[in-house]
Amino acid sequence: MTCDASLDDVRPGDLLSLDFGEAEDAKETRRLIARDWLLEVTRVTNDDDHSVVHGLCRGRAFTVDAATMRMTPAPEPSQPDLASEPWVKRAYPEWYNLLQDLADEGRYPAPSASSIASAIPNEGVAVDVTKLTSYDELKATVASDASFWRDGTPPNAPRMTVEQHATLNAGELLATLAGERGVAMCQLWAGWEDETDSPHDVQPVDAPFVTRALRDAALDALDAPSTVGITCTPIAGMDPAKGLTALVHSANSPFPERALHLKSFGAQAALVAGSPYYQMLVGVILGYDTRHVESHVSEKGGVLTTAITAEVAKDLASLSPGSEAKIPWRPGYFPGDYGDARMTAVFGEESAEGGKRGRRGKGRKKKRSTASSVADVESMFGKRGR
Question: For 47-68, how does the pLDDT look when each residue is reduced to its tens digit (9 = 90+)?
Answer without folding.
Answer: 777 889 999 999 999 999 999 9
